[in-house]
Amino acid sequence: MKLLLSLCCCIGILLSGCDDAYYNDGGLLDNQIGVYEGTTMSYLESQPALFDTLTTLIKLNNMEEEVNRKGSTFFAPQNYSIYNYLLLKYPDPENRPKTLEAIPAGDMAEMAEYISDYIIPNEQIVRSDLSTVYSYSTTLSDKKARFNLVREDYLGNINMGAAYMIYSVNINPPATPEFYSPAKVVVTDVATTTGTVHVLISDTHIFGFN
After folding, report:
1. Is pLDDT of 154 > 80?
2. Beta strands per DSSP E along the chain
3. So what's the architecture of 4-209 in CATH?
């Protein structure tokens, strides 16, 4: 049983540890080869400080097969993004589920749909194939997704500094004007035995593109 409140203990670790592990331009440190000898799911499980809440939700929704679908891409939201979603979903602490397993069935189904938003089935999206021009695909949840590179320095100056990858999903219903909610990618191109993983930023992205 994973207490939702235990996520609070992870926040400090996440915020203090990420800068030491990864560049913020979407690249890997020199001593990280970007290859993991295991499935996408096992890669996520190997980094519990970042993904143990995510992997629990995947298992509770029986979505391991979808995450591990051969030749697919998974844009992995971190624990902190899910924590912030839960705070928005259940603002009253008295009514907030005490464990992930206690989340009501209807809300859990919604979270399963959100997990599908992060899966690009049967297509491996890699940073080297992207440019500042949008590339498009479709998520497992049948939503339009797009990818591009943005160049911006630490002062926010556009077209300066390092280029980083953006993953965006159209969150508007069909037959309405498209609106893409973006998330910055902080780690790109982790190759697993079943596909490709990109890790999304945790402090500005809320699970489900909320």
Report:
1. no
2. 72-76, 119-120, 135-138, 144-152, 158-170, 180-191, 195-200
3. Roll (2.30)
For the packed helices 79-89 and 7-21, what is the interaxial angle rounded to 10 degrees?
A: 140
Q: CB under 8 Å to 116, separation ≥6 — which residues?
A: 63, 66, 139, 140, 141
List the domain boundaries for the chain.
Answer: 4-209
- Measured in degrees and rounded to the nearest 5, phi and psi for residue 166 equal -120, 130
pTM of the model: 0.83
Query: 132 phi and psi, to 5 degrees?
Result: -75, -15
CA distance 26 to 4: 29
The two tokens of residue 168 are: 């965006």
Structure tokens at 22: 């990864």
More confident residue, 168 or 6: 168
Q: What pLDDT shows up at residue 151? A: 83
In three-state secondary structure terms, 182 is strand
* More confident call, 190 vs 159: 190
Q: Tell me the per-residue pLDDT of 52-106, one tens digit each, with 9 for 90 and over.
A: 999 999 999 999 999 999 999 999 999 999 999 999 999 999 999 999 999 999 9
